[in-house]
Specification:
Tachylectin-2, Chain A, single chain, 298 residues
């Protein structure tokens, strides 16, 4: 009885705090050593409860980070852009079409010198494609809707075998992976013949961009088995055609200290691995913050 009461009190007065870190680590070394074994430098914390889902890119010789920011007092996530890992340079990302709702997972990719972003906007039941302004990368311009009529989350684009492949999943439907393909970004995306592709619960929801090492294609996914964002699974994409897809689990990436409670995004850029991490915070304000977050999500 006392243990149950104690656990209830701990749960009531704790909340999750996410942050972003980076370490010098190439995709090759990451795969060879099966994980993160080098020191991670984390952004200084502040009043924000969430700073997560980091995606990085180079522009004009500078490194930029785009990621989700969330304050429980606001309740809904927004997107921010920093130059390098300088938190003080953060700017709010502008240009999301219509009423944005909760924003997260700003997947950034490049095609023929142009940069695009696919933010998660599952509140709108859409997957939208935006283009980044080359001079002001925090400014987005809506290009088109790629998918609609479902709450797709954490979508990733890949150019492979002369096609664009869109990997995604649906909210709360762990174990079902959806893949769509098209010959160009202007064409309608066609559903993969195996959709929804039945996989393990830790192999469906994306945890960063797909990447190649020695000609092999790897896919990071979220592992929710212990808790939301508990760890990352690295998978080998053994087969990918319009009619067949085969994915094999390789290894698990656990959280990195001092963020022992979770990790759900890993990405590579210019010799860096960019990641996020979760820890628990105890506070008398926790019940109030959780209430504001719940109200903001309605």
């Amino acid at each position: 009885m006392w243990r149950t009461y104690k656990n209830g009190i701990n749960k009531l007065f704790t909340y999750d705090k996410w942050n972003i870190g980076h370490t010098l680590l190439s995709p090759d070394e990451f795969i060879r050593t099966k994980g993160i074994h080098s020191p991670v430098k984390w952004m200084p914390e502040d009043s924000l409860e969430y700073r997560a889902d980091p995606f990085a890119f180079m522009s004009g010789g500078k490194l930029y980070l785009m990621f989700e920011e969330l304050s429980f007092w606001k309740g809904k996530g927004s997107l921010a852009l920093t130059e390098g890992f300088n938190k003080a340079s953060a700017k709010e990302v502008k240009g999301i079409n219509g009423k944005a709702g909760h924003l997260s997972y700003p997947f950034v990719f490049e095609v023929l010198g142009n940069r695009f972003c696919i933010p998660e906007t599952s509140d709108k039941d859409k997957v939208d494609l935006y283009q980044l302004d080359p001079d002001r990368p925090h400014k987005l311009t809506w290009k088109r809707t790629l998918l609609s009529a479902a709450k797709y989350v954490d979508s990733c684009m890949l150019w492979f075998q002369d096609k664009f492949w869109l990997f995604t999943s649906k909210a709360q439907e762990y174990g079902e992976l959806y893949i769509f393909w098209a010959n160009s970004l202007e064409e309608d995306f066609v559903a993969h013949a195996m959709n929804p592709i039945k996989v393990r619960p830790n192999q469906s929801r994306a945890a960063g961009a797909l990447f190649f090492v020695n000609g092999y294609l790897y896919m990071p996914t979220q592992n929710p088995q212990r808790c939301y964002g508990g760890s990352v699974t690295i998978n080998l994409v053994k087969t990918l055609t319009t009619c067949h897809a085969e994915i094999e689990e390789c290894f698990e990436v656990p959280p990195v200290a001092p963020y022992h409670e979770g990790i759900h995004t890993v990405n590579f850029v210019s010799g860096y691995l960019i990641l996020d991490g979760k820890r628990k915070v105890r506070s008398f304000l926790a019940p109030v913050k959780k209430t504001f977050k719940m109200l903001g999500s309605v």
